[in-house]
TrEMBL record:
Belongs to the GSP E family. It holds the Pfam family T2SSE. InterPro entries: AAA+_ATPase (IPR003593), P-loop_NTPase (IPR027417), T2SS/T4SS_dom (IPR001482), T4SS_GSP_E_ATPase (IPR050921). Residues 202-356 form the AAA+ ATPase domain. This is CpaF family protein. CDD domains: VirB11-like_ATPase (cd01130). It comes from Marinobacter azerbaijanicus.
Length: 401
């Protein structure tokens, strides 16, 4: 529950914002065409004027804070601005005006940020969507979008969201962790890195499995760096996050339906199209639906070395999830045929885990060694064993077989 003083400040912010919007209209100031310094000066002058006219006892520090937050309201995404500019924040989760959480170093924690009310949250959502031509209202209460910097945004409002509008942001970073960064942080050993790079260089089909926030995209991006430079690569993503320093790459991105409900391009559509583009390898950001059918068939028909990720808590669970995706997306075959398709298409599963303290690491690397009797037979190439005394992890590599 917000304190009385905090609530009074939020009410003040609301009044100042409305006042400033009126002043912008009166002066004919176009926010999108004004320089940031000029606009900030305008905001600062008018905030000071409002405070003086209403004889509000604000300290110089509070006045500066009010001017900055009002500027963020006018020129940016309001209370989200400081969180978006903080490089230590990976995820931003807004559950309501007073419930804002962030993920830092793999650990969720409550942020000091808050919104004025539900309308304020909705206003920020619509500001995010405005340049994208996307709509959010009662007839279309859910939306996926992307900020100009590449960050992924999911927003949902009532009546679907029962407790008020909600925002989830997965921030995009230009600075991806290097192999040495991951080794130094204990996410993998040098031996594990050698195993993984060897698998990429020898064109093994790799599936990276893990739960939410375990670093699947980070590992996929890392492994992609080891693809030989003379190969043609096609990447397919819902939101472009991979950054491959590669001379021969084609990047494809899915597209949601427009306001008329048409124009949707799915990952499955793009995988089918990619097969006509003569790729040596296909990299699919994440397996979620029917694209798994075409991806497995591509892995089986001359596109060795392809890679993707999947949400799953273990290597065996990943295979079960693939079976389910095949079944629900119309792959009409018996259990034995499905097992043969999966077992012969996938070469390696890289399993990722995350400890309660936020530490992410490669927990297992297994090779698929299908036999006529067991299409899902696995051999361990690398395994992490969690210590029970101090919570540390002991890493042991067993080599590529």
């Amino acid at each position: 529950m917000a304190t009385r003083v905090d609530q009074e400040y939020q009410d003040l912010k609301k009044r100042v914002h409305y006042f400033l919007v009126e002043r912008l209209d009166e002066e004919g100031v176009e926010v999108g065409k004004s320089g940031r310094e000029t606009l900030y000066g305008f905001v600062q002058d008018n905030v000071q004027s409002f405070v003086s006219q209403n004889r509000m006892p604000l300290s110089a520090q509070d006045l500066t804070l009010l001017a900055r937050e009002t500027f963020d309201e006018v020129a940016g995404f309001g209370p989200l601005e400081p969180l978006l500019s903080d490089d230590s924040v990976n995820d931003i989760l807004v559950n309501g005006p007073e419930d804002v959480f962030v993920e830092i170093a793999g650990v969720l924690q409550r942020a000091h940020t808050r919104f004025i009310d539900d309308d304020h949250v909705t206003r920020v959502i619509r500001r995010i969507l405005a340049p994208l031509g996307r709509r959010l209202d009662e007839s279309s209460p859910m939306v996926d979008a992307r900020l100009p910097d590449g960050s992924r945004v999911n927003a949902i409002i009532p009546p679907i969201a029962l407790d008020g509008p909600s925002i989830s942001i997965r921030k995009f970073t230009q600075k991806h962790l290097t192999a040495q960064d991951l080794v130094n942080s204990g996410s993998m050993t040098a031996e594990c890195l050698d195993v993984l790079t060897s698998l990429v260089e020898t064109r093994r089909n790799i599936l990276i499995s893990g739960g939410t926030g375990t670093g699947k995209t980070t590992i996929l991006n890392l492994l992609s760096q080891y693809i030989p430079r003379d190969e043609r690569v096609v990447t397919i993503e819902d939101s472009a996050e991979l950054q491959l320093n590669h001379p021969h790459i084609v990047r494809l991105e899915t597209r949601p339906a427009n306001t008329e409900g048409t124009g949707k391009i799915t990952a499955r559509d793009l995988v089918i199209n990619a097969l006509r583009m003569r790729p040596d390898r296909i990299i699919l950001g994440e397996v979620r639906a029917g694209e798994i059918i075409e991806l497995l068939q591509a892995m089986n028909t001359g596109h060795e070395g392809s890679m993707s990720t999947i949400h799953s808590n273990s290597a065996k669970d990943a295979l079960v999830r693939i079976e389910t995706l095949l079944a629900v997306n119309g792959y009409d075959a018996g259990e034995r045929a499905i097992g043969r398709l999966i077992g012969s298409s996938l070469d390696v599963i890289v399993q990722l885990s995350r400890l309660p303290n936020g530490r992410r690491f490669v927990s297992e690397v297994v090779a698929m060694k299908a036999t006529p009797d067991d299409p899902y037979r696995m051999e361990t190439l690398y395994r992490t064993e969690e210590g029970t005394d101090d919570g540390m992890v002991k890493l042991t590599g067993e080599g590529v077989r």
